[in-house]
Sequence to fold (755 residues):
Amino acid sequence: MSIKVKLSLLISLIATIILALNISIYYYSSKNEMENSLRQEMLTIAKQIGTNLDAAEKSMRLMESIIGEKLRTVAISAQSALDPRIENVGNEQLAELSRKLGVDHISLWKRGDGDIKVFRSSDPMELNMGSKTMDYWYRAFNQLLDDRQVTIEQGQKLDHYWSGPYQYASSDPDRVHKWGYYYDGTTDYIINPYVNAQVFLDYENKIGTNALIRSVMSGNEGILAITGFDPKFFGKPEIVKLKKGRPVRNLDVRDVPFGIYAYADKEQDVEFVLRAAGTGEVSTARFKIDGKEVIKSFIPLQNEKHYVVSVIFDYGSIKEALNRQLFLLMFISAGLLVLVWTTSYFISGAMIRPLRHIVDYVNEIAVGRFGRKIETRARDELGTLSLRVNAMADNLQTYMGKLQDSAEELRSTKEYLESFVNHTSDAILVTDLQGAVKQANQAFGAIYGWNPEDVLGREPSIIPDELKPENEAIRVRVATGESVTGFETVRLARDGSRIDVSITVSPIRNDRGEVVAIAEISRNITARKQTEEVIRRTEKLSVIGQLAAGVAHEIRNPLTTLRGFVQLGQKQGSLSNAYLDIMLPELERINMIVSEFLVLSKPQISQFRPTELSELLCDLISLLEPQASLVNVHFRTSFADNVPPIVCDGNQLKQVFMNVIKNSLEAMEENGGEIAIDLSCDGANAVIRVADQGRGIAKEHLTRLGEPFFTSKASGNGLGLMVSQRIIANHKGKMSFSSKPGIGTCVEIRLPVIA
Fold:
């Protein structure tokens, strides 16, 4: 058998094996992928149902709360219209009162004969109905009569009032009611107005979770059923009560609160539901029910009520799709095998032809002839062999050419790097791990006043003494492989002057990845800092100017008092000690306001020192109260006792808090209201929150807060928040905003505390 035939048969055999493996792998991977996709789809459906269920339950609770509060209002109104003694109240009076107050009926409950019963009612079916068999309702009635308050877990609890969940009526099991019970001790009975609550069941079926389930199932034929289980009741004996001789399951103890319980295998379903609820993990299994193979997934919902959702999918649809794909792949593979065997026979003949050319050329090399080259057209192993043989002839010449090119490239790169280092305006300083200078550029000398040659081999004196621990901490971090970017600090020039700089510190590694040196690039930002200080002072004076009216108003009040006492002294010739005791505190208040005003207005040298934030905020609130009173705004403060002091420039932080509170005052000029100022500690940070009840900020403007010259105020300049954010950043803190138009804005400031 020739090489050509052997090669074609070998290629065909390999192709057959590959195609068989490909079909097998594709079949099982497609099966797993489809099952995983199905599980993910089930999980998505369950999450969608959970989200909808959560929203629906919140809506239902809100509706129940609103109706419950309405029933309490009705009960209070009924109390004012009824005699406090039940024997003086008639059923017809209650019927008329029900129509007048807009409820279905009103019943009056009272203790008697060892039970709490309905003695009067606008609904004749309610009369003489007892509550002793009504489980927690009976406990709620006793608590209301004994303590005027209800403490059981179920229902809505208000002052002198309790409203149970909507439920089927014991007097008429075909109707769903919502009841309210009011008793404040001024009557000898509980007032019980109630209304029809069919709207809750209609909401569940038409808008709520059941409607969503119907929509999902109508859009996916493979889903056979979606069921919601309550692990608290599922698998346990049903709680059924007789109402008017009819068995009724209460709405608050349903084992299947939503969905359709189809393809049931009660014993196994109970096991999977309890497992999913207990572990919080999804449980999936394949079942065969009524001759149909299905996949059930039991997905726990982590909502307020820990339901478990079961999604049942028809597994036969997956198998049908896989079988169609398998048949198509086998048909295509058979055709490919025929094509492979035919073409491989001709290709193998062409593949061995280059071998003769290679042998001929090797013979020429053997006798010392290197001028001719093998013509190479193929890019397979034979083509590669031909290329390698050709390469042996000119390898030395090519190698020398590459060495020359590499030397030229290295020289060019070196010149480029030296030009960049020496002509950049940023100071570049390279030191070893001990701090000795290995390289410094010309900009280093221009910024710090040191000649680069004078600092080589030693550590330059450019770090202030108080910042040496900070610099050492940065070097330790960089020595472990980290990088520090855009860190603002202070350095010393050769003449001792202080320079504000922004530094970037990076590690330098050798060919083994070890850190062997540290590169520091510093940029002089003194001019920028001075500009920021000018802007900060300008903004401070702007705020102080706006506060002038409020301060003048606050000072005028004690001055009026002092003027009156002085006039009185002129008439009487002298003043009693009682009058002087009143005048002295007024003078002290004027002195405090003017002193605080001057501290804020005059330039201050930036000094960081331990400061109690509560004292700083109290001083500022005292200063701003006159301004707040002019726009009908009052302050509510809540300061925690466990907030440690912080290291800060108190004057700068006052400017920040003044800017934030002033913005809140301006937002509340039209309607007035309350500004809440809270101070707390979350461990490493002090947290200051300023929340107003103003007009709020549009969502599209929130992201632009702090941009220079961006403002929504007609008289603003857009610099206040920018300056405030810069001050907070200089204190290593963070400033964030949240707002809802028409509701108000909350500003949160976090500052590191002293450890």
The mean pLDDT is 76.
